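Entry:
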Amino acid sequence: MRKTLIGAAMLALLAGSLAAQDEEPVPGAKILERTKADAMLLLPQAGTGGSAKVRLEVDEQKQTEIKIDVEGCEKLKGYISTPFGLDKSKKYPLVLALNGDGLDTPEDLKSAARLSNGSDPLILASLMYCGAEDAGQGIRLISPLVKQEKLIEALTWFLKKVMADQPIDPDRVFLFGGRGGNDRAADWAEKLWEDDPDAFPFRACLYDGPMWNFDVEKAPPVATVFSVVDWDLEMSGGDSFDSPAKCANELLARGVPAEYHVFKADFFTSEPDRLFQIHRAAINRLGGPGAEEYPPDESRYLGAKVPADDIPWKEHKDPWANEVIAYALAEDWKGAWERGNGILNDKNIKTKEKRDLKDFMKEFEKYVKDECDRLDASIQKSIKADFWPNTWHWERLKAMNRAFKDESWYQKKGYSKTLETLKTYGPAQRDAARREKLMQAVKLELEGKRDEAKKIYQDVAKDKKEDGGVSTWPYAAEYRLSWWEDIG
């Protein structure tokens, strides 16, 4: 009976038509209202998040070990990871991460801390809940140190302690279940919601990898993000676990905002940067500064790349200059500028050792200034023609804007204004209209009107060739349809 009430209330709230409850309050009503608003922050999903070509910027963090003061859980260990320079007068988002097998927790937490960066620094916490014994022949047997109910008790105690001891923003607490720990994370979230929906602590649940025994009906009705590597699906055929795509479809049908990301990664890379880009974006959107923008797939670039677009350096006699060049060749102009100047400003390096790099950085700065002029002129022509600009030029100017926007010479120019114009002129307005159609589809899908929503996705997907084929939202509609599953 209680589950039926919650499900009905969720659909009503997300449709914006919750009626007053005379007999008894709806369990978790405030959480459901927040989820309704969060749906509009996360959706429509533009496609697979992140980019394999963009460097993942992270901040430096330090770890602290915490004793778990729960009877029967003395062997468990808690760990907190905080940014260097933590300002206790501020409030930080918290991520409780169960990332890995529960054994090498300090390393797993170090990996999960890649969710944090300077624009939205996070506090992270995790629990060591498994032990290992030598079985001979180089084999380690890993087993839980406590039973599931005691683990949940310890996790709940640990979360409350971290929130009490650290400067945490209670409206931005997230659960991250990484590969190996996502099933336990989902079980814990389910139990917390079942026990007290009104006190449910997590703004969103973020899961990476295959899901095992994921119960959509019992899952908390909060924003949920799934990511999975393509080879995980290929190896299993999707039959040995609950398909994350199926979970996301069923959550959406239930009225719960959900994202699904399937991406390519090297088989031998267990935790590629892209999965952290995907989940960081959700954290950044939900009460944060907004998600970082990533370049589109090069197959959708408009305009040919010509010799004038080539970077003028391939290699240099100075090894530090070569590092700067490597960043530039990856179109990471911010990284190039920071690396070059970081070395020049390093007082531990003798001046004479930096001469070649100093000369190169002068050459580098001159090229950047001339290149910004060239890119701006190209884009201005497209604006006058009411057509999307050459994507190579647009993406490079955006990257240079991120790198040099605070430089005085850059601020005297109109490059930032040019980029702002691209957000509001004709093609951008048409793109915004397509996004609005997808918003309508999202709202219909969350209301359970999936046939109507699907038709809109199909209609928007037909616009892929409009405006030079650069528009984001037809591809977003196509991506949504690629993992659409009819719910019986």
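The beta strands are 61-67, 77-83, 92-98, 123-128, 130-136, 139-144, 168-177, 204-208, 223-229, 258-263.
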